[in-house]
Specification:
The chain is of the alpha/beta class and 527 residues long. Strand 15 and strand 16 form a beta hairpin. The longest helix has 21 residues.
Amino acid sequence: MSPPRQSFRTLTLLLSVTLLTQCGIPSPPICRNIPRGSREAPETLLTAARAAWFDFARSHSPADRARYNAAVAKLADQLRCGSGPFSTRASAMGTVVGDRELEAAKLDLGDLDSLVPADSVSVRSVGTRHTDPGIGVPMVGWISAPEKEDRRYEFAPPTGVPLSLTVWLDFDQDIPTWRMVYPGRVPNTTVAGRTEPLAADWSAANAFYWQMSDLDDLDIAKVIIPSRFIEETDLYLATPYDPEKIPVIFVHGLNSSPGTFKQMFNELQRHAWFRENYQAWFFSYPTGTSWIYNAARFRAKVRAAGELAASRNGSDTWDDMVLVSHSMGGVISHASLVDPGTRFYDLYFDEPLPQVDISVNGRQAIERLLLYEPLAAPERVIFLATPHQGAPLATRLLPNLLSNLIKLPKRITIDVIQVTLAEIGNAFRDGARPLETSIGTLSPAFGGFEAMNASPWRDDLKRHSIIGEWQPLGLGPFSSDGVVPDWSSRIEPVQSEITVSSFHDVTKNLPAIQEVSAILKLHLREQ
């Protein structure tokens, strides 16, 4: 396959927007009828589970542990698929719910809308299933986002929260007691006084989240009709903010979503060093609008999240932040980490801002768009397949046709400032197009790239580049990942730079993921 054919295929998919913008993606069923294999009498299953529990305590045999887990899994099906509160379901089968369930997640069992066995969740979309053997049954707990109410916590995902859980029955109590914890914080339990590791599935919750989430749906619509998704522009956390963990913010590119990082996140989340030290954030935005506008929204959201960190005594870890940015997301990050002075402003205006005939809101919006200070955090940024000098593909026929289909929003919001595009457009000098589409601003001829690359980086910022190249390698400046040419992907100076054999979707490339992992480990060593 040659680069032009791949690009043509991608753009053809982009143009197939009509049906996709009209159709939602159905969510997977949470709980069907109790599986046939789990319909045995609970007394029979309890007897089998109790015998296996004490057999395992004596033998420490994987076979006895497997017998215990199999019986508990069937009982857990009856617990999760029954009617009424969890405590009532537990009592009906001769068990009780422990008073420390979900203790590590700081939630009550009643907060869960559903429980799903981890092994029933397909992980095909995120890659390899990563598990740890042990006592108990890995589950995914799902907490739906409340409708028309405040989020459960700051920067919570819009559809709901998945929890990696391990469920087991404790037979060391007078009455068999259900336990449920997050294995990342409670990795062990006791069996007849003997410490044993808990079973864990580190991939199922990630995969389930993307199946249930609308952040990963309708990427093409986010290009063509960005106004439909303006309100979803935000940073999102999968779990409540933890001030002890270093934030890693993932920023996606054009015709994409946070889901482009699902394989990478799956590979990182499997490691205890990542789970214990880092907390993932995802920036989601409509990709049809100019990267100058999206960069302004990004800076506003990061600063708002920084205020949360400061209020939770997390300023130190917040300042240790790492950005992982792909494609146009890398341009958004690059623009947010340089001091532009008046370079962007001079693209559109001949006179100083106080002399521009525009409302107060309009003037403040222009300041946030074009006359801004770089972000004080992060400490490090990783660029993946980033067109620092534009992408020539954006100047070709099909992208130009696609750009003409994009319907820009009439009103834009930056931080808390709202203004119409028409007002800003009327203030621009003659011939300056107000906030062109994303495709228009990705052309190497767009003056924003010259302004950005002429602007100095923020002091003490560590930079890394991961560049994709088609097979065969070794074409030097003439190589490309199919979208971004080699000469546009490279910046100087950087702390590290590698080239991987990959198309533009380097977020799914294993050597690229391994390099991100190595950089994050280096980051920990340097703290």
